[in-house]
Structure formats: structure tokens, C-alpha cells
Specification:
Helices cover 43% and strands 10% of the residues. The chain is globular, with a radius of gyration of 29 Å. It is built from 16 helices and eleven strands. The longest helix is centred in the N-terminal third of the chain and has 35 residues, at 31-65. Strand 9 and strand 10 form a beta hairpin. It has helices at residues 10-21, 31-65, 71-81, 85-101, 103-110, 116-125, 131-141, 150-164, 166-178, 200-215, 226-238, 243-256, 274-277, 302-324, 360-369, 407-412; strands at residues 181-186, 192-197, 291-294, 298-301, 335-336, 384-387, 402-405, 419-424, 434-438, 444-448, 499-500. The relative contact order is 0.08. It is mainly alpha-helical. The protein has four domains: 30-177, no CATH class; 185-256, no CATH class; 274-333, no CATH class; 334-461 and 477-504, no CATH class.
Amino acid sequence: MEGTAAPGGPEVQVRSFVSSLMGVDPEGLTQAERVAAVSALEALKGAAAAAQVRLTAAAVVDREALGEDSRSVRADLALARRCSPTVADQHVGVAKALVGEMPETMAALTRGEISERRAMIVVRETACLSREHRAEVDRRLAPTIGSLGDKALAGAARRAGAALDAESLAERNRRAVASRRVSVRPAADGMAWLSILGPLKDVIGAYVALAAEESRRHQIDPDLPAEKWEAAAAAARADTRGKGAWLADRALELLSGRAKGQPQPVEVNLVMTDNVLLPAAFGGQAPADDVATIPGWGPIPGAEARAHIAALLDHADAADVARGAGGKSCATTVWLRRLFTDPSGRDLVAMDSRRRRFLGGLRCFLELRDPTCRVPWCDAPAVESDHVRAVHADGATAGANGAGLCKRHNLVKEEPGWHVRVQSTGLDGTGAHGIRITTPTGGVHDATAPPILGEGWAAAEPVPDDRVSDVHLQDLPLPNDPWEGWIPDPPDDWFTQDVEMRVA
């Protein structure tokens, strides 16, 4: 049966060897023996990667030789390698190139002379060459491939390819220009990376212009009146930002088009508990777990979240004053949604809908519960919300039967041999919402919805008796009681009612 290892087959042999490695003990060994063992294990990693390359290439090539779409087996390989489908595609491309076109590099990897990373470098730097030229570069690099570092190996492969086919280098540059783009990705500590990939001359030119402006930031116009000159000098002395911080602030101001100090008018799902949002209502002391979470991005300190909300409210009030005085302003509105969890506070409760598709509040529910794709090891954003059990199989349009998926996995799960079912709904005391994925080769993978407050969340300690322990948001002393009449008669599709929150 496909997906079942034969007795004594490669899987059993490899797992037995892995178990034997658990017995490696550094105690009683000399330093020379320890270093020698580390070197041998490094060679072992290369040899293991070579075995994966051969198996990966065979799995994909056999499927393609039958004229079938390899998308399903690629997704299966991604789960087997515990990586995202995009990374698995890279592994597949490297495997096909090494097995079919680059025997010398493949042999060096098999002997453990190079790592998988360096084999990928050679494949990447020769991707624009013809099959014949790639094989020639492979032959030329063979004598020194085991002694070159990453940068030296990349340069050698690129130079050898240019010598064989200069036009390929020009074509590579043309393709690179066509791939220019802007991207954003999360960074640690509540930060994010904004990257611009563009032609070298244009990017350097933009940076030089920005740096030139930074070099003049403390210069003051000598023609200013004395009173204005003193104010400008005081502002310059007060600006203690470093060059990097100033460049980042100025670049973001220019790109966003916002004035200095103006909050960014974008929607951010900032999730926090009621006592993190308003600690004054709980005795005036922030909780021990004073953390808010941006689903899909990570945690930020509760104090920072409260300061951000306060800044938005202050700007909104200033905008109201400006409008009342007949001035122009960019209004900022703060919205507060109540989210209902199970008694543990870990998971959002489910909800149903009589609609066919996941829209409106139900889609918002799934986006908050599943900010990234539910398939294990896939970190792609969950851009699609779909049924776990299909509608044509009597699957309900409900939170318990929904899952957030990336576009690729939403398509793959409909391929023959793929089966997805709800393992736990999160409503019956069995834990968080969970799904089970079975692949065409018999692999079984469970995926549990992350806590609404992010991975690493833990239930808070019980509230002491001397603190307010039974405070609800609707009881908080907010002006005009924004919760009044909060829950209407439920329409076809509802999750929460948005209310504008103004905190005095």
C-alpha cells in the first residue's frame, strides 16, 4: 500500500540510525574526538541531503512522466520536510537539477564534502544556463567545490557561467529588473521590514538623496528671524535620533504621505483582554500578562498598545476640533470589537451562518482565529477561508467547519487522495479547534488553531479576591455607554457589532 514502509526499507533503516545517534555522548571524549565527531556528522548531513535529493527527484519526475500535475506530490513533500510549499518547490528544483544535470556537485554532496546549502548555491547561480553549459560549470567547479565558502562559490559559478554564455548573464539581469517589487514582512519586537527590490542605480540613488537630506537636518536658515531661529535651534538640539532612525522615519513619512506625528490610518487587528486595554477598571494595575497580540505578526507590550490607542484617540479629537473650526483634517476612528472565547480564554468560540460562503463577520472570525495557513509548517497568510468538509458533502458554513488557508493549499486539498476533516470543534471541552490532514501517501498531520493571544500564551493566574473579579466591558464607565443595545437580533451572518470607542 502506498504510504506504508516495507519491512527493512529505507525509512526503517534511517529511523533506526537516527535512534542510534541519540546515544552519542560527549562525556569521556577528548577535544580532538569531539571535533572529529562534529566533522563526521557534518558530512553525514550532506549525505542525508543527497539521499533526500534522489528521493525527491524520483517522486516528482515519475509523476510528471505520467503527464500528471506534480502539485499534489510537492505539497506532500513539503509536509514530509516540515517546510512551506514555496521552500519545497525550491528543494524540488534543486533535486531535479542535481540528479539530471550536475553529477559532480551531486557526487560531492553524496560524499558529504559540501552542504545542501552550497549545492543550492551552485544550482541557483547556473539557473539561467543551458543544460550543456550548466554541466560544464559543474565540471569546472568540481576540483575546488569542497574548499570554497558560500560567497566564493557563488562568485565562481557566476563567473564560469558568464565565460561560457555572456548573453545568459544579460538575460539574468533583464529578468531581475522585471521582478522588482516592494514587500513587507514581520521582524522581532513589534517591528517590520519594508523592502524595495529595484535596479541598483535607482536604489542607490534614492538612498543617497535621503542621506543628503539627513546631513542637512540640523542646518538652520541664517535668514530666519531671531525668535524663529532660536525655536529651530532648540528643535534641532532636541532631535537626538541616530542617522539610521532618522532615515527610517523620513522614508516612512515620504512613502505614507502622512504628516509628522500623524497616526497611520490603517486597520490593525490588535487583540487584547479587557484588563490589558483598561487596567484602571481592574484596580489600576496592569495584569502580569500585560501583552497584546497582532494576529499573524506577534505580541507587543500592553503599554505600547494602550499608548497607540491613546494617540489615535487624541488625533481623532484634534480632527474633530479642526472640523468644527472649518479646517480640513484626516479623521481617525477607533473601533472596538468584543471577541467571545471559551472559558479558558484560549480560543474564539465558533459561529454559524446560513450563507454559502464565509463572508462578513464569519470571515473576520476565521481571519482572527487562523491568521496564517492552517497546514503545518506553512507560514503563508491565510488569504482564503473555506469549508473543511465541503458543502456538497453536507458541510456547514460555520466556524467549526471553516479553516483559513493559503491559496495553494486550498487548491491542493481538493486533489485526489487528500482528505481533511475536523478533529475537534473547540466547543465540547476537547480543546482548541483542530483539523486532520491525510496525504495521498498516507501521511497524517494534525493542525490546531493557535491561541487568540498568540502562541506561547498561558492562562492567567486566578484574580485575587481583593481585586475586581467580575468586571465586564459593558460595565466599564465609558462615556455614552457604547455597549448599549450592542447585540441586535442576529442576522444571517453575525459575529460582533463594531462600536466606536471614545475613552475620556
